Amino acid sequence: MRNVTKDNITDVFKAYMAASTDARTREVMGSLVQHLHDFAREVNLTHDEWRTGIAFLEGCAAIETEDRHEFVLASDVLGLSSLVDMLHSRPDATSSSVLGPFHVSGAPPLAVGGDMKRHYGGPILLAQGTIRDTDGNPIPNAELDIWQTAPNGMYASQDDEQDTFSFHGLMTVGEDGKYAFTTVKPVEYTVPSDGPVGDILRACGRHPWRPSHLHYIIKAPGFKTLVTEIFPDDDPYLDQDTVFGVRDDLVMTYVEKPASDFPEGLEISGSVTETFLSVDFDVILARV
After folding, report:
1. Residue 29: its H or E element
2. Mean pLDDT for the chain overall
3. What is the DSSP letter of 287?
4. Which of 81, 212, 271, 274 has its CA 20 to 30 A from that of 50?
């Protein structure tokens, strides 16, 4: 096509894809470019603004490492990650929520009732519940991948002072579907704002704060894998999560209890001498 104009360039692009045998690729790429071109026409995008956008992408690539995923973070703060989650969440199951850029694969085994708090200071949190199907039946032998920040608000992959798998654990539940573990009460924290994503947040007048939460990935044969987070109902950032991860069904309540109420059969049973926090949160998985 020789006579490409601002009005026909989108159709020309789609015509160039006619030879593709992948219908989904044609659909996705065609729609992406349609919206991209429409956006540029709508705002009358300038050369300087275009160069700023390219510089943003180059800046993300420049600081991307195995432990820092700036492109994922960009998707998170723009709401794209959460939108994709919500598009594919099942209404009869626990909502999904963002994976985030700080998950570390290969976490060590954590027994049911195991402890992730170890030597760290801060309030003890006992988290427990049952992994169920949509009919309310326990799902036996499900795998639960757990991770969170340390009391300083940093994940292990961000913090040289922490072990590689600090506050990470991989649990396999029993036949009853029940999980339980102790950890330190999670804290609210800021996403990294010293790179291109931080520039976007500041330009938009936004803060970088996330409410405190626990991350879960739950897998079981025959069920859809769930990536989610759970949030306490008293967190000050619950209604202004910078990555849009909060859902009504993911909000839970910490209950403060005396040390005498700490149950038997957990790794730290018998050693708890102060009040602790307890939360019960059941997870519902949908079948594939």
Report:
1. helix 23-43
2. 96
3. B
4. 81
